[in-house]
Amino acid sequence: MDPFELRPETPSVEDYRRLRRVSGLSEKSLEAAAAGLPNTWFAVTVRHEGRAVGMGRIIGDGGTAFQVVDIAVEPAHQGKGLGKRIMTALMDHFHAHAPETAYISLVADGDARHLYSKFGFEPVMPRSIGMALWLKPAGVPDR
């Protein structure tokens, strides 16, 4: 029997913040998480014995543009194929509900690019270059 249950649900604010922190993603403030999570287009949460141990979300406008974000798995459960299961669920949802002309993007940190390439994602350079803006200087902790 599979000890992991993948549910089509947005993680709670508490689980979201914890999973980002323990998996090495940047921390988000309570206010930011509470404001952002309700705008999720689709999400999955992986549970082990009822506890959230992984997540992945899709954000976007519902038609023209989407972004895969917040792929995170607790370190104790990494290497068990959960990232692949999360991505499979997100991609299945895209294929079932997103228009064929939708633009789907993501930012691949480090070796995560190897996982994403298995799902057809590829670098956009040199045609395009990813850019970002942080509203707060690096090194200043979130609340």
Highlighted features:
143 residues, globular
The CATH class name reads Alpha Beta
Q: Taking strands numbered 1, 2, ... along the chain, how are they ordered across the largest sheet? A: 1-2-3-4-5
Count up the helices.
4
Any idea what the CATH architecture is?
3-Layer(aba) Sandwich
Could you describe the 3D structure shown?
The chain is an alpha+beta fold and 143 residues long. It has one domain: Gcn5-related N-acetyltransferase (GNAT) (Aminopeptidase, 3-Layer(aba) Sandwich). It has helices at 13-22, 30-36, 82-97, 112-117, and strands at residues 4-7, 42-48, 51-60, 65-73, 103-106. The protein has a five-stranded mixed sheet. It is globular.
Short recap of the structure:
The chain has 143 residues and is of the alpha+beta class. The protein has helices at 13-22, 30-36, 82-97, 112-117; strands spanning 4-7, 42-48, 51-60, 65-73, 103-106. Strands 1-2-3-4-5 form a five-stranded mixed β-sheet.
Topology diagram in text:
Blueprint: E1 4-7, H1 13-22, H2 30-36, E2 42-48, E3 51-60, E4 65-73, H3 82-97, E5 103-106, H4 112-117
Parallel strand pairs: 4-5
Antiparallel strand pairs: 1-2, 2-3, 3-4
